[in-house]
What we know:
single chain; alpha+beta; 3 domains; 5-stranded antiparallel β-sheet; 4-stranded mixed β-sheet
Amino acid sequence: MARKQVPGWNNINLNKPDEYSSEFLVDGNRYANVTNVATGQRQLFLVSGFGGTPLTQRTLITSTTASGAITQGEGYDDFIRVYGQDKLINAEINNKKQSQFVISQASTASEKVDLAKTSQYQSSSGNTAPQQDSPGTNPAAAPTPGASTTVSQETIAAGQEAQQSVTRDISSEKSDEDLRYPINNVYQGDFIEIEMRTYQKSGFQTGTDTLTVTRMEDREYTRLRRIYLPIQSGIVDSISVDWGNGELNPITAQFANVAYGTLTQAGTGDGFAAAKTFGFGIQEVADKLLKGNGNADMQKLLVNYFTEQAVGTPGLLSRSIGGAINNNLELLFNGPTLRSFTFNFKLTPREPLEAQAIKKIIRVFKQGMSPQLSKSGLFLSAPNVFKLKYVYTGKGSLTEDHPYLNKIKVAALRDFSVNYTPDGNYMTYNGEGSMTQYDLSMTFGEIDPVYADDYTDKQGKEGMGW
Length: 466
């Protein structure tokens, strides 16, 4: 049976009557779409290939079934190397919409029913072609965000359903609780998951002998939202520990020894005896030090040390004996430090729904990091906190921690900035008003420090650890 002819689409291969072909332009590259309107399989080709090939040559990048299974073509690796993942994502988004359009035009009623049951074409009868148009491409292509062409309610509903479908793939939560950029991540590359949680105060856990504070990782919380963003360049993991100079001169050491012994004795319960011992100990140490105890160097040290203290003039010891007090300088451990992580994301809306998603993402971060005012206005509640996670999709999972990237503890969003004109010019999409690009910069600070024990717990044992 002859297939319906669709303007802008080629359907002249008698050996493959179910296949339609069309070309489109995205990000300066010309692509070809080949769709089987009976099975729903679609192919993405780069027209002209790489480096001096004929203009008529097509290089297969990906092939996708109606169920969403993606097979890499012979040009896949070269495409990623030359153009990068972002351009592949954009090309795939447009390629899918091309297929949805031609299926809505050329498939039979029964074929549409069957394809509507698949994850890729649940709304195939209502979708239009891609939003980017150029001379020589499909004349039925949909406009760029905010263009003057009217978009049908069916198209908007189809796009919303596609967005919800992608969200369901990575979350069991309701779609309106999660946000993602890009909204149609058909490539499903690795991404970063940012989960916003309610802040829970530490409180105190009292026992018979100790007083402890519960770590943020172990406190109960309520998950508010999750945001999924592509992993950007510049991933840095830095751990530091606070060590500082410590000094203890011989004079201080003598008195410290008496005080230490006294407090140890007081800990046994005999406070009166301890106080008496402390008095005798101080007197004995002072007597030994003042008399020099037969040590001429100690006598000089004491005379010069207390003379410096009396007149407020340092350096007398160096002038008198040509030396200085041995303060037993040593680098001493003071404690851990808290880590910070800075991220920069470039968000470019490719369609109105994606512009809306970006606006919501920015609002969620801004509102989530802001303190909350109590009803009386007397108190400020702590802002929400965030749990960040690098997700590795290489094994087909959409929840697995990346085995070769660090983990991040629960963190507070300390700084958040948005550059609305990253190119130095004010540019918006006509009608919609969305900026053409947003640059987000954010700094997260971990609430708890990293301890050696963290590398042996359930999370720390896996992958790169903290």
